[in-house]
Structure prediction request, 297 residues.
Amino acid sequence: MKRLFQIIAAALLVFSSCKGSYVIYDPSGTPVIYFHDTLKTRLHSFSMIADDEIPIEADVRIMGMPSDKDRTFKIEVIDTTASEFVIGTGVYPLSAGRPDIDFTVADPVLPAGEVTMRLKITLKRQESMMNKYVRVGLRIVDNDDFHAVMYDAKSSNDVLTPEIYFYVNDGEPSCPSWWKWTASGAPGWNPYIGDFYPDKYRMLLKFFNETEVTSPVFHDNYVSAYGEFLENAEYMFWTKFYPSAWAKYVAVPLYEFYEQWYKDHPDDPNVELMNQVNLMTHQGWGDPRDGTYAILN
Prediction:
């Protein structure tokens, strides 16, 4: 499949992307490089996780043939003059990310024989993120090995762009509206995931965020549908969309982590009844691996 892509890419004089937008590519010239972006706003938050670093990746691709040697492309940091960031109806303070303080970027190298790579970026927790968002903006620029792509159609769901942006903050998470047992009930408990409390929500999102690497198709479809923190998810969403992936990468690892945690920390004030559910009193956490509350039942 990769070889087929390479042959097709080399034969194209005009690369048609989507919704009538075009990227001009001359196969006899310098290869064109770009970020392949399917999400318009990439949100990350330390408020949902226990770690002090968030490893993320950006999808980098070229229009051109592979080389028998490693090729370096050039990245520059984009400053921001904006002081506010709007999410839905909320308006938040915003500042530009500081290299080596708020984030680091791995060496931008396309390996020999490849036409795609994942650029590794690490977001770093800072106290200042407690009351504002930090924007990390990266731009690919021309160098001897590559030309940066021109901007593609921004209205598309599949964007070729020389720039990519990540937003990160910190703070205490609140219970999401979908963490409930009945569609009309109050959030706070569901037999499939037990009680809500902030540390547990952070751990759930830690496992979910790891799927950006372990299962990127599942991750990107979930983020597109529900948001980076599942903030737009609906009641019992995991039963309707990729239930097997949710069980494998999130529900089962979360249950097994706390099953062991509660055994090792019986004095934890958040200890739950594992594999014991009382629907009348809204207590307990059903085992997602087997039985009544197995995700795939």
User: Anything to note?
Assistant: Residues 1-22 have pLDDT under 50 and may be disordered.
